[in-house]
Amino acid sequence: MDLASYRHLRLEPQPHGVLLITLDRPDKLNAAHEQMHAELARIWTDVSADEQTRVAVVTGAGRAFSAGGDLAMVERQIGDYDRVTAMLAEMSDLVYNLASCAKPVVSAINGVAVGAGLVVALLADISVCAADARLGDGHVRLGVAAGDHAAIIWPLLCGLARAKYYLLTGEMVSGAEAERIGLVSRAVPREDVLPEALRIADQLATGPQLAIRLTKRALNGWLRTAGPIFDQSAAYEMLTFMGEDVREGLASLREKRAPQFR
After folding, report:
1. CB-side exposure of 240: number of CA atoms within 13 Å?
2. 61-81, pLDDT tens digit by residue?
């Protein structure tokens, strides 16, 4: 793996073949702009192919996991057919590359995780979350359909009724509540998130590799069966980027007020 080819992900090899991946835009709460989003889409194929890596741990620099998509990137996409179609392909790569990664992925959700950041946080095979972290899918708050990862993974993790509630309302959920409803694997005190994720990763890295990888592959058959649902939701999200509601949603976020949709 060419570690130097990643500018917005910090890659740090750990003992026993564990690779620590840190989303590294702490001044922007690790919000994903075009370059970071592209790196998040391709890192999983590199992890899968890298003979030195057995397990990946992904976390965020500073006090957040990821604040989602960078608002400037969102603005550039509105009404831009070429950007929207390119993003549709890339967001599909992000979800499918992560789901198809042969190696186990552990997320250390050290703070707020929304939007594009939540894709990685929840599609990881094991998720360790700060009990006081805030998680949520804010697509409807922005005025676009919940695409990214939501339709493929939320119903599997917490059930259709809760998935509909949180995805239709855009409400945030605490890490402790996320553990209670099954959205994350474990909730621990914030200072324990990364140490616990690394402990789990070390256990996986020193275990029987073929057995672990094939177990992951079998379990992710549930994700593969939901692929058409994800494809539909991703297309719907990009469709709504061509409308007017997203302009009001973006303005309301910037002005820190409630949106006034038509």
Report:
1. 20
2. 999 999 999 999 999 999 999
C-alpha distances (whole Å) from 119 to each of 53, 61, 67, 99, 251 are: 21, 17, 12, 11, 24
Please give the Cα distance from 44 to 170 (Å, whole number).
28
Q: Torsion angle, CA of 250/7/118/124, rounded to 10 degrees?
A: 170
Maximal C-alpha separation, the chain: 56
* CA atoms of 82 and 217, how far apart (whole Å): 34
CATH of domain 3-255: 3.90.226.10
Backbone phi, then psi, for 183, in 5-degree steps?
-75, -30
pLDDT band at 3 (very low <50, low <70, confident <90, very high): confident
> Residue 17: which of 140, 116, 103, 132 has the closest Cα?
103
